[in-house]
Write a structure and sequence with these properties.
By secondary structure, the protein is mainly β. The chain folds into two domains: 110 residues, no CATH class; 157 residues, Maltoporin, Chain A (Beta Barrel). The strands form four sheets. The chain has an eleven-stranded antiparallel β-sheet, with no helix packed on it. It has a two-stranded antiparallel sheet with strand order 2-3. It has a two-stranded antiparallel ribbon with strand order 8-9. A hairpin with a 6-residue loop joins strand 14 and strand 15. The chain is globular.
Length: 286
């Protein structure tokens, strides 16, 4: 019986994961991380009823206060062998606020406020290559450039894929990644729920200046506009560019803080709410 090269590759990967315990000749520990917010917002103007929720998260004046409860629980297992090679298995569970936003407003403590889903499930390999960290799976990616008070993400390239971070080339650190993303079947926004947006990301760090480029492709980007078979065609490809300058002062006036200067441009799938982003739930509703 002939075995194709693809089958051999799958067998090799399966064998690699099956032999993981033998690789982990010594354990580097277990990590637990988390985040939660809980509260009840009400106002005297509404006779101490719950404050209005829709749109409140994106207003500049909310000062970081959010009217919904949320939690994330991140578990990470680390392995290291005698050669110094490391494996980190990362998972993150979180409240499903996108689908159950009304329940997340509740002030009670029963199970109705506990809908949960897996946000991240990915693995990192360090020491396999001379420099850099190889990763693969479903993860947050590039979400560290944002304005907290308004939840505005300049870059949010999250999704499922694989890549390498921090690989040294020409004296600088580079990131390379392929990321697949979708809208979780919400056909009201992006048409065919089987559609996957394919994105390729390249980033470089010049020790204080970051440059990011992302090319995107979404096949058959058609949306039913009236429910009667009439559709409208949107961009099926695009790109965006992001430049970030890190300053260790607040607009040059004080050294007690930092400032990020960010410039972006994009076309097609790289413009609008997808500027610097993939098809995440947040970007879909932005």
């Amino acid at each position: 019986m002939k075995i194709s090269k693809i089958s051999l590759a799958i067998l090799a990967v399966s064998a690699g994961f099956a032999s993981l315990p033998s690789f982990a000749e010594k354990s580097d520990g277990f990590e637990f991380h988390g985040y939660f917010r809980a509260g009840s917002l009400f106002s005297e103007n509404d006779e101490f009823k719950r404050s209005k929720f829709p749109g409140s998260k994106e207003r500049l004046g909310r000062l970081g206060i959010e009217s919904d409860s949320h939690f994330e629980l991140a578990l990470q297992k680390n392995f290291e062998n005698e050669k110094g090679q490391k494996i980190r298995i990362k998972t993150r569970a979180g409240a499903n606020n996108a689908e159950y936003a009304t329940n997340q407003l509740g002030a009670n403590a029963d199970a109705a406020n506990s809908e949960i889903g897996m946000i991240e499930t990915f693995v990192e390999f360090e020491g396999v290559t001379e420099t850099g960290t190889i990763w693969g799976g479903k993860r947050f990616y590039g979400k560290d450039n944002y304005i907290f008070m308004t939840d505005l993400f300049y870059t949010d390239m999250s999704g499922t894929g694989l890549g390498i971070e921090g690989v040294e080339l020409g004296g600088n650190k580079w990131d390379f990644a392929y990321i697949a993303s979708d809208d979780s079947g919400d056909t009201e926004f992006w048409g065919d729920s089987n559609n996957i947006m394919h994105a390729a990301h390249v980033g470089i760090d010049f020790d204080g200046v970051e440059l990011h480029a992302m090319g995107k492709y979404l096949p058959d980007n058609m949306i039913d506009i009236d429910g009667q078979g009439n559709s409208e065609e949107y961009a099926s490809s695009g790109f965006d560019l992001t430049a970030i300058f890190h300053s260790e002062s607040v607009f040059g006036l004080s050294d007690k803080g930092f400032t990020k200067y960010i410039g972006q441009m994009g076309k097609g799938l790289g413009a609008g709410q997808l500027l610097g982003g993939t098809l995440t739930t947040y970007n879909t509703y932005a």
